[in-house]
Amino acid sequence: MSVLIFVDHLDGHIKKASHEALTYGSKIAEQMGDTAEAVVLGDVNEDLAGVGKHGVKKVHHVQHEHLKNFDSQVYTNVIAQVAEQTGAKTIIFSNNSSGKALAPRLSVRLKAGLASGATALPSNATVRKNVFSGKAIANVSLNSDIKIISLNVNAFTIEEKEGTAEVVPFNATVDAPKVKVVGSTKASGKVSLTEADVVVSAGRGMKGPENWGIVEELADSLGAALACSRPVADAHWRPHNEHVGQTGIAIAPNLYIAIGISGAIQHLAGVNRSKVIVVINKDPEAPFFKAADYGIVGDAFDIVPKMTAAVKKMKGINA
Ligand SMILES: Cc1cc2nc3c(=O)[nH]c(=O)nc-3n(C[C@H](O)[C@H](O)[C@H](O)COP(=O)(O)OP(=O)(O)OC[C@H]3O[C@@H](n4cnc5c(N)ncnc54)[C@H](O)[C@@H]3O)c2cc1C
């Protein structure tokens, strides 16, 4: 039997979230004495044998012109064929936008139980996951023959060791998509927000869009992605793809730096899975300090440039 891991890629490069899922799925296979196998749809500019470094033994690669653009219905049909032919009993996705579209569809198709948003390795088919925006933890038992688990982004450390995977072309029936992509515009951020290790985020405390230079400089010095609170995006100070929170993007970076953000519950809902939270706010009573690992009470316009200078000095970057 095998554990099948879906590999998500963007512009031909395997996403960091998929490297996490590959490590996670390989560990599950190890636990169960099974083989870890991966499924890749569409063209990739990387040597797929390389995913063997995460413990995967075989990669099923499906190439077809209809797989050029992501289409959840077309992709689900193809993954189902691979799952059926390989006899996979456990299927792993990353709980990112692709995984959120594919895992539920596949679970209906294969009559499989689905645990979405796993945060740790399962124990006796019981999966630990965050619920209510991370306010509680649920242990979910999967009792179906086929089990699907989607792993939260940044919840599992990528592991690499010696090894290559066998790459085999998979001949699937690929439907023509019912939806045609007529154009797409790329988000402007230099670092992808959902994949970033470090996120620098700012709110209404920055007073206006003209002041974002110091936020961007701090983000650049740290190699971080930029984020913002909702009112900032609503006021068009920053693009909507940077808006994090309950109604925006939910993120879980290793480090989240919040500048001039009050810490409303709706904001916290999207960022409280961050491993370390640093809050900079001039109001010592700002609610965000309760959720912070480190807090700096002070004026962002004074503190942020000093932080940037310190980071640059530490990294040996000339100012
Ligand atoms: C249904 C619903 C959904 C929502 N979804 C979201 C969501 O997804 N994401 C989200 O962010 N919000 C969301 N909101 C809005 C949320 O309730 C807050 O209003 C919002 O998060 C506040 O944004 P803010 O912290 O940037 O601004 P403010 O609340 O105005 O806070 C600004 C902060 O900056 C500090 N400050 C001011 N000047 C400085 C300075 N010079 N230096 C340092 N600190 C300074 C202030 O002390 C204050 O704490 C939602 C609201 C509703 C009702």
Question: Would you report the number of β strands?
Answer: 16
Helical/strand content category: alpha/beta
Residue share in helices? 25-40%
The largest β sheet comes out as: 7 strands, parallel
Measure the end-to-end span.
56 Å
Mean pLDDT: 94
Bound molecules: flavin-adenine dinucleotide
Uncertain stretches: none
Helices, by number, come to: 8
H and E string: EEEHEEHEHEEEEEEHEHEHEHEH
Which descriptor suits the 3D outline? elongated
Report the portion of residues in β strands.
Answer: 15-25%
Spatial ordering of strands, largest sheet = 7-10-6-1-4-5-11
C-alpha-based Rg, rounded: 21 Å
Please give a quick description of this structure:
By secondary structure, this protein is α/β, with parallel strands linked by helices.
Explain the layout of strands and helices.
Elements: E1 2-7, E2 9-10, E3 13-14, H1 16-32, E4 35-41, E5 58-62, H2 72-86, E6 90-94, H3 97-110, E7 113-118, E8 126-131, E9 136-141, E10 147-151, E11 166-169, E12 198-202, H4 213-222, E13 225-228, H5 230-234, E14 255-259, H6 265-271, E15 276-281, H7 288-291, E16 294-297, H8 300-315
Parallel strand pairs: 1-4, 1-6, 4-5, 5-11, 6-10, 7-10, 12-13, 12-14, 14-15, 15-16
Antiparallel strand pairs: 2-3, 8-9
Helix pairs in contact: 2-3, 4-8
Note down, in words, how this protein is organized.
The protein is α/β, with parallel strands linked by helices. It is 28% helix and 24% strand. It has helices spanning 16-32, 72-86, 97-110, 213-222, 230-234, 265-271, 288-291, 300-315, and strands at 2-7, 9-10, 13-14, 35-41, 58-62, 90-94, 113-118, 126-131, 136-141, 147-151, 166-169, 198-202, 225-228, 255-259, 276-281, 294-297. Strand 12, helix 4 (213-222) and strand 13 form a beta-alpha-beta unit. Helix 2 crosses helix 3 and helix 4 packs parallel to helix 8. It starts with a strand and ends with a helix. The model has no long low-confidence stretch (mean pLDDT 94). The protein binds flavin-adenine dinucleotide. Flavin-adenine dinucleotide (FAD) is lined by residues 203-205, 229-232, 245-248, 260-262, 264, 266-267, 270, 280-283, 286, 299-301.
